[in-house]
C-alpha cells in the first residue's frame, strides 16, 4: 500500500487539519514506513476504563508498537492554553499508552507545520530501533522454536532407539533361551541313544555267559587236572578212569544223583563223563579196555 491509497482510505477519519498535515508533510519523508501497518484514530482504554483514541499508531510483526500524538497548546481554542485538568488528562493519556507497550512520540502542531523533517527524523530513528529489537526477538523465538522442535525430534528418535534396543534385548534373550532348550534336548537325546546300544549289548551278551562256564555240560568238560579247583561242585570232567565208585546220594539230593571220585591207579586208561550240573540224573562210564557202562 502506498501513501495515496492510505490517504484515500482514511480521509474521513482525521480529527484535525494538523493530523492531515502530518500525514502529508511528515510521513512522506519517512521512506521506511509501511502504510499497511499504519492506523489512524486507534482506540484504547486507560486504567479507569475511559475510552480514548490515539492519533497515529505503527504496529508491525515482532512487537513494533509506536504511538504518535499531534498536540496543540490551546485545547479549547480560546487562547488560554492548557489548564491544570488538561495537563493531568494529558499525562494519564500517555501513561496509559506506555503501560500498554507503546513507544510514544508527541509532536506539537507548530513542529508538524514548520519542522516536518525534524519530526520525520524522530520517527525514522525510533522505527529503526524497534525493528532491530523485533528482528532480534523473532530470531531468538525462531531459534528457540527450532531448538524445541529439534529436541522433540531427537526425543522421538531416542524413544525409537530405546524401543529398538528393548526389542533386540528381548529377541536376544529369547534366542538364547531357545538355544539353551535345544542344547538340553539334544543332550538328553544323545544320552538316550548312547544308553540304548549299551543296554542292548548287555541284553545280548548276558545269555552267552552260561555257555562260557567250563564243565557245565559234557560238551564242554573240565580237564581232570582242574577238578581240584571245583571241590564240592557237580561238573563234567574228562580224563583217564581207573576206578569208579558209586555212592548213595544224601537225602537233600534228588534221586539218581551221583558224586564221582576219580583216582589214578594201575588198572589202565579210560574216560568218564558225568551228568550235567542241571540234571544230576544220568551218568555214563566208559573204558577203552573194558567197554562202556551206563547207569
Task: Please give a structural write-up.
The chain has 295 residues and is of the alpha/beta class. It has a domain of 121 residues: VSR Endonuclease (Endonuclease, Chain A, 3-Layer(aba) Sandwich). It is 44% helix and 16% strand. It is built from five helices and nine strands, in the order H-H-E-E-E-H-E-H-H-E-E-E-E-E. The strands form three sheets. The protein has a four-stranded mixed beta sheet with strand order 1-2-3-4, with helices on both faces. Strands 7-8-9 form a three-stranded antiparallel beta sheet, with no helix packed on it. The protein starts with a helix and ends with a strand.
Proportion in helices = 40-55%
Strand content: 15-25%
CATH topology (fold) name of the domain at 3-123? Endonuclease, Chain A
Tell me how many strands there are: 9
Alpha carbon gap, first and last residue: 152 Å
Q: How much is the average pLDDT?
A: 77
Radius of gyration: 67 Å
Helix/strand structural class: alpha/beta
Give, in order, the helices and strands: HHEEEHEHHEEEEE
| Corresponding CATH architecture of the domain at 3-123 | 3-Layer(aba) Sandwich
* Adjacency order of strands in the biggest sheet: 1-2-3-4
Continuous helix count: 5
CATH class of the domain at 3-123: Alpha Beta
| Overall 3D form | rod-shaped
The CATH superfamily of the domain at 3-123 is VSR Endonuclease
Unreliable segments (pLDDT under 50, ≥5 consecutive)?
252-295
Biggest sheet: strands, sense, closure? Answer: 4 strands, mixed
Organism: Pseudomonas brassicae
Transmembrane segments: 167-188
Protein name: DUF559 domain-containing protein
Domain DUF559: 54-127
